[in-house]
Specification:
The chain has about 625 residues and is mainly beta. Helices cover about 5% and strands about 35% of the residues.
């Protein structure tokens, strides 16, 4: 894509769609019996949405819903369906009042804190379960500790440890073993713990523990770099840690110095999905815009129920779709299960999120899926998210070989966004993920401080491509038609400080054939993972298995273990990719040592001037 085309795209994203509009107003202190005016606003977003629904069939101008500052606390998912769409070329716009910050929250405040006899603070909670806790707006640390001493695999179902006192721990079924395995971060739940002589015998929940030991790629039986344990009251020993006793509906917390628990706000997430735009291929939801809104306090509880057997990029094994090959487990056609997002756009078209914030979320940030087309995420900030910030498309059959072309995820753009400090709980997460998508544009974003890769595009290791991929990988059947993955653009992004926890990833990482796709003009540096020869590299740009028909040009990469990594050697896929005119400097001491042309490319990458205010105070430690 030429510089001129990118400029035209950006101008189109920035141009206003209408100069006049019908207007409603909504405020947390309003009343749903009000008419929705500035003087008498509605109280809830559902009421405002329903007011729009009564007048949007024959639109002559935009309809604007003004959200005033404060917290709109949801007790159920806020749905937008086809009847909530803009019409006649006009939009329904949900916009923050100038100078105010409206927050759409799925959280519940926790109050009534009392000090117990051991110096901990505790409070009754209105929720059965949650996996995150935010104290004064800051994510607290779930109680954790090192792997128990003398930990040894014992039989098929668990471990023994010399820490026999573990047999006396309360609620062992809440305890999780967490494993760092190269590019995967897996969590397995304990079933029970019993004493046996001087040892404790730890039985793990099945069948997930067996899946984690035998899955393909890297597994917890043979590839563990680190083990730690999490979520027990007996591990609560550091300021800033917390534990939820689910049986007693009581949360415990050890305050940091200066934290007064009767004074600071404490919030736990209660709602998994905050907002869903829910269309169908026959009736997509269209032309809705969100401007200046913060989305926060989303939950995700599946790991508490069954654990989290990580495959890659925050996708897990599908227990109903397994295939065994050469002793390892994978999913048929790599149809793994993604972590759900708090905001979902399904069969949604011409939806726009502009200058919004997505934060304090327990799964992923936002999903564009199943027929999502022509949507734009512009100038948004994503931070403090447990999983991946942005997920475009998926890796299921409806994505790689849909039975209806209208299901293809196509022509979506993520531009001028700031993504940092994501993957907080699930380290295999990435900044921006795109599966089998067509025409995705990921441009001019600032992506930093991530545990794994910055941008990941494509999936399947080539196995779902026409004719299959690496012949060493058996699948029950092959496809003769290509996937929709094509014409994707990864351009002018500034990616730095990624790969902080895991290995075998990159600033920009790809899988599978993607004809017409280009990786161009990106500025990638200081990816900090410690590469290990038997685990895979830390790369600037990484064309992994099956990657084909991709152009890599004009990128500036330095202070990275391996600036350009090829692992697309089967079927001569490497020969289909054009890599030229890049600046790869793994040992560069300072960017001033780059040629002037490379410095110009680096200066143009990242947020454009209109959006650099997003960085102010945002990248501090």
């Amino acid at each position: 894509m030429s510089t001129r085309i990118i400029t035209v795209l950006l101008l189109g994203l920035l141009m206003p769609q209408s100069l006049t509009a019908v207007e409603f107003q909504v405020a947390p202190n309003g009343n749903d019996a009000n008419p929705g005016t500035k003087e008498e606003p509605f109280a809830t977003l559902e009421r405002a949405r329903d007011a729009v629904r009564r007048i949007n069939r024959d639109m002559k101008e935009d309809i604007v819903v003004i959200l005033h500052g404060g917290t709109f606390r949801l007790d159920r998912t806020l749905f937008f369906e086809p009847e909530d769409s803009g019409a006649g070329g006009h939009n329904v716009i949900y916009r923050a009042q100038a100078g105010e910050t409206p927050i759409i929250s799925g959280g519940r405040p926790i109050a009534g804190w009392q000090r117990d006899e051991k110096g901990r603070w505790k409070a009754a909670v209105p929720l059965e379960d949650f996996r995150q806790l935010y104290v004064n707006g800051i994510r607290a640390t779930r109680a954790r500790g090192d792997a128990p001493a003398g930990l040894t695999l014992a039989g098929e179902d668990g471990y023994t440890t010399t820490v026999s006192s573990m047999a006396d721990w309360r609620h062992p079924g809440d305890l999780e073993f967490c494993y760092v395995c190269a590019w995967a971060h897996t969590r397995c739940k304990v079933q029970d713990i019993r004493r046996e002589g001087d040892n404790a015998v730890i039985s793990m929940r099945q069948p997930q523990f067996n899946f984690a030991k035998t899955k393909e790629g890297v597994n917890i039986a043979s590839h563990v770099d680190e083990i730690y344990v999490e979520n027990s009251l007996e591990l609560l020993d550091e300021p800033g840690e917390w534990y939820l006793d689910r049986a007693a509906r009581t949360v415990y917390y050890l305050p940091k110095p200066g934290e007064g628990m009767t004074e600071v706000p404490v919030v736990a997430p209660a709602l998994e999905r905050l907002v869903e735009l829910r269309g169908t291929p026959d009736r997509p939801v269209r032309n809705i815009r969100f401007e200046g809104i913060t989305f926060e306090h989303g939950s995700w509880l599946r790991p508490s129920q069954v654990g989290f057997v990580d495959v890659q990029a925050n996708f897990v094994l599908d227990e109903a779709n397994l295939v065994k090959r050469e002793g390892g487990l994978t999913a048929v056609h790599n149809q793994h299960v993604k972590s759900p997002a708090s905001i979902v756009c399904r069969a949604a078209q011409s939806i726009r999120f502009e200058r919004c914030e997505f934060t304090r979320l327990g799964g992923a940030g936002i999903d564009l899926e199943c027929g999502a087309r022509d949507n734009v995420i512009l100038g948004c900030r994503f931070f403090d998210i447990s999983g991946t910030a942005i997920q475009i498309g998926d890796v299921l059959k409806d994505d790689h070989h849909p039975d209806d072309p209208r299901k293809i995820v196509k022509n979506n753009a993520v531009v001028n966004c700031c993504v940092r400090d994501c993957g907080r709980d699930y380290w295999g997460s990435v900044g921006i993920f795109a599966g089998y998508t067509e025409g995705t544009v990921i441009a001019h974003n600032e992506i930093t401080r991530l545990p794994y890769s910055g941008i990941s595009v494509g999936y399947g290791w080539g196995e779902e491509d026409a004719g299959g991929g690496n012949p060493a990988y058996y699948q029950p059947f092959r496809y003769e038609d290509p996937t929709p993955a094509s014409n994707n653009r990864i351009e002018s992004n500034h990616i730095h400080g990624v790969m902080q926890k895991l290995l075998d990833g990159a600033g920009i990482y790809t899988l599978g054939n993607m004809p017409g796709s280009v990786i161009r003009g990106n500025h990638i540096h200081d990816c900090t993972g410690a590469a290990k020869a038997d685990r895979g590299p830390v790369a600037g740009i990484y064309l992994d298995e099956g990657s084909g028909f991709i152009e890599v040009t004009g990128n500036v990469v330095y202070r990275v273990n391996k600036p350009m990594n090829y692992n697309n050697l089967s079927q001569n896929r490497k020969a289909t990719c054009k890599e030229h005119d890049n600046w790869f400097e793994p040992d560069l001491e300072h960017p001033s040592g780059l040629p002037s042309e490379a410095r110009d490319v680096a200066a143009r990458a990242g947020l454009t001037s209109e959006f650099r205010d997003l960085l102010q105070g945002h990248l501090r430690p």
